[in-house]
Amino acid sequence: MKIKLLLLAIFTLLLSSIVDGQRKKILQNGDKSPIFKFTDINGKKVSLKDFRGKYVLIDLWSTTCTPCKYQLPHLTKLKEKMKGENIVFIYISIDRDKKRWEKYVKDENLGGIQLYAGEERAYMHAYGFYTIPRFILLDKKGRIIECAMPRPSNPKMEKILTKLLESNL
Questions:
Q1: Among 12, 89, 101, 104, which is least packed by CB within 10 angstroms?
Q2: Cα(143)–Cα(160) distance, integer angstroms
Q3: Alpha-carbon distance 157 to 142, whole Å?
Q4: pLDDT per residue over 24-82, tens digit each?
Q5: Closest Cα to residue 15, out of 27, 7, 132, 131?
Q6: In what order do the strands lie in the sheet containing 37-40?
Q7: Distance linking the first and last C-alpha atoms of the chain
Q8: Which helix (H) or strand (E) is 134 found in, with range?
Q9: Do residues 72 and 110 make contact, with C-beta atoms less than 8 angstroms apart?
Q10: Which domains, and CATH codes, for the chain?
């Protein structure tokens, strides 16, 4: 039974990575991140291009995802520790219900760059992600440093970011 489930999962992933008879490339470390343009909590369009010259840590999350919400305070603490450094923290929500997302962001007083992708999954799927939370680290030119960052509750994330900022690559 386990083998059948595993084979079904592998088949599904392979099938989902094929479009128009051609295999899609799943992004990897070193690749250029696709440019996104999503709406922020104030209704302004924000693009990845707006952050050229800075390191970017992206959090893909949703208000309906309990593990995602668990990571938010950890990421907030990390963001505060990194204040004044050449890094931005971007939170991209894939909530289906925009009003629910807006209410949550305001009620929880979430700071940072809060963006709403809604059901637009192309950015997420370009990385081969089908589950959240996910954390992606980009360099100053928009290249992927790490497409599978540890969660903020894991001390490894802080170590990676601190080392990166100290090296100032």
A1: 12
A2: 16
A3: 19
A4: 688 999 999 999 999 999 999 999 999 999 999 999 999 999 999 999 999 999 999 99
A5: 7
A6: 45-47, 37-40, 113-116, 87-93, 55-61, 134-138, 144-146
A7: 48
A8: strand 134-138
A9: yes
A10: 29-167 (3.40.30.10)
Chain center to CA of 108: 20
Q: Which residue's entry shows tokens 């952050």?
A: 51
User: For residues 132 and 64, is the Cβ–Cβ distance under 8 A?
Assistant: no
Query: What are the tokens at 30?
Result: 């070193």
**What is the residue whose two structure tokens read 């807006």?**
102
Residue 19 C-alpha from the chain's centroid: 23
Spatial CA neighbour of 137 closest among 82, 64, 59, 73: 59
Q: Please give the structure tokens belonging to residue 56.
A: 């970017």
Element housing 9 (H / E): helix 2-16
Neighbouring C-beta atoms of residue 11, cutoff 10 Å = 10
pTM of the predicted protein model: 0.83
